[in-house]
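Incident log, support desk, overnight shift.

02:14 A customer reports that sequence design results differ from what the structure should imply. Their input is reproduced verbatim below. On-call engineer (initials T.W.) acknowledged and began investigating.
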């Protein structure tokens, strides 16, 4: 911590939170008898190849969010957006002697992230927070943000990669996933729908979060309102249906991503409606008609895309996602297929309900 502009005496550092990507610590400092906490993170260098560029993005984003919230008259804006603490040299990231990259944020007290959605209120609040996040960043000045993971939501490219890996996989493994592979391969037109609308200039590129899970929004423990969107590593240029879609993927079922009992992977329409209400309450004002029309489709597509990635990793021998057993990625791919098929089956109805909320 002595590398960063943090006052006081070091008290302790403890591993913190349940993130899967970075190493996160809560650091306590004693500032003239008052204890103040910070979040210290080692950035996952394997997932994010260029941490300094990533931190350049995050630093810009945090300042823009803070300025926007102050403009909105927010009194406690430092709690409503992450604040980057720079090094004594003024950089937003510190590289240690072993090549590790570290960053520090203010700790947001009195708020927690939830791993599994428990009630409609949480779904509404999370979606409202991500909509507000996009709204505040809609006019980010300056150059385009760096793509921290190039081609992150290039679904057709992900499908193409799957096709190759599937074709080259050893026969027993290929046989074991024939049904799942067929599900993905037969929907190749859907896979390219959003990127081709973007290429034609019909869907605008925006600043999107790209990891819109419930546990990346801190929710106030007393008011139960969303306080702050966190986990900004994947914030980069993207499409709005990706963010809403990933919310749908992760917050419309109580089943865990690696649930083996597919009966439990049930799409919950009430959670979906809560997401739609929350999201439109804050993002409704800037969305174009075509963006609105593709929000539900985004839910299908993000579930499909993650499923493709799980199955690809299974065929490749589990090299990307952490696994506890050999079939883990196959089990995960199946939960995504179960959810994607349910969304697909009622897509028209959901679109109608969303349009009604929008008109209200
Ligand atoms: P990962 O990419 O590994 O998910 P996150 O940035 O989401 O990393 O951080 C991991 C966890 O640490 C979060 O789920 C949250 O519980 C906690 N956390 C992160 N930043 C803060 C913060 N500024 N204040 C309080 N808690 C935080
Ligand atoms: Mg996280
Ligand atoms: Mg993350």
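02:41 Re-run completed on a clean worker. Output:
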């Amino acid at each position: 911590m002595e590398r960063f502009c943090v006052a006081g005496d070091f008290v302790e550092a403890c591993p913190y939170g349940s993130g899967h990507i970075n190493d996160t610590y809560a650091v306590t400092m004693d500032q003239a008898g008052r204890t103040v906490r910070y979040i210290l993170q080692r950035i996952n260098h394997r997932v994010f190849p260029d941490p300094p560029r990533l931190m350049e993005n995050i630093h810009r984003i945090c300042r823009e969010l803070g300025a926007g919230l102050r403009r909105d008259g927010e009194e406690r804006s430092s709690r409503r957006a992450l604040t980057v603490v720079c090094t004594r040299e003024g950089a937003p990231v510190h590289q240690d002697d072993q090549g590790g990259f570290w960053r520090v944020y203010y700790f947001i007290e009195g708020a927690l992230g939830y791993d599994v959605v428990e009630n409609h209120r949480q779904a509404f609040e999370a979606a409202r927070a991500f909509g507000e996040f996009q709204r505040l960043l809609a006019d980010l000045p300056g150059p385009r943000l760096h793509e921290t993971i190039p081609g992150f939501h290039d679904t057709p490219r992900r499908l193409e990669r799957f096709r190759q890996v599937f074709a080259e996989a050893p026969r027993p493994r290929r046989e074991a996933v024939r049904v799942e592979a067929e599900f993905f391969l037969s929907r190749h037109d859907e896979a390219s729908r959003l990127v081709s609308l973007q290429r034609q200039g019909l869907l605008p590129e925006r600043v999107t979060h790209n990891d819109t899970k419930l546990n990346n929004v801190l929710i106030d423990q007393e008011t139960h309102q969303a306080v702050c969107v966190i986990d900004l590593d994947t914030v980069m240029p993207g499409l709005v249906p990706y963010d809403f879609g990933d919310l749908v993927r992760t917050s419309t079922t109580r089943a865990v991503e690696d649930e083996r009992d597919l009966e439990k992977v049930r799409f919950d329409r009430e959670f979906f409606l809560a997401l739609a209400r929350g999201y439109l309450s804050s993002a409704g004002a800037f969305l174009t008609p075509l963006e609105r029309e593709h929000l539900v489709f985004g839910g299908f597509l993000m579930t499909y895309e993650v499923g493709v990635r799980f199955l690809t990793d299974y065929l490749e021998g589990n090299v990307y996602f952490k696994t506890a057993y050999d079939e883990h990625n196959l089990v995960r791919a199946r939960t995504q297929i179960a959810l994607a098929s349910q969304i697909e089956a009622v897509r028209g109805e959901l679109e109608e309900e969303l349009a009604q909320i929008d008109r209200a």
